[in-house]
Each structure stands twice: as C-alpha cells, then as structure tokens.
Sequence to fold (88 residues):
Amino acid sequence: MSDEFRKWQYDVEQAIKEWPNKLVEEALKQNNGYIGKAKRWLKSKRPDNLDSFHGKPEEQFIVTIRAVYDEAIIKLGKIADKQKVDEY
Fold:
C-alpha cells in the first residue's frame, strides 16, 4: 500500500504541474483567444474560498485547486505581457 500511495502522490504532483497549462489552453479555446475573457472564465471556474479552514485533506485539496487556477491566470497575464497592441 505504501508504494501505491507514493505512486498516487507522484502522479498528483505531476498533474498539478501540468494543469495550469491545460487550463490556459482551454480558457483561450473557450474564449476565441481573448486573454481578458479567458481570465474571467478561469476565475468563474475556480472554486470559492472556504468559509473556514481546519487543515483537513479535502480542504487542502480545494486550496491546491485554487492555486492551480491562480497559476493559470498568472500564465495568461504573462502571455498578455508579451503581446503587442495593434490598435490604440
């Protein structure tokens, strides 16, 4: 069981690293490449803040999911920072 748990832990850690990029991709796809709309879309999908936090695993998981969404939003900001504005 210990090996199974370690494998699960490793798989989750890898997924956490990959999901911000996947979320950015999906947000841009859902919003025809518009970064502002993609950010709003991600914010609408992000789980709400917890009313109370006691450190239970399921509460920590929600915090982790929020952090994945936050990372995706930051990545969208970095994409926007690299783009040139054509119209003024």
Q: What stands out?
A: The CA atoms of residues 11 and 88 lie 46 Å apart. The radius of gyration is 16 Å.
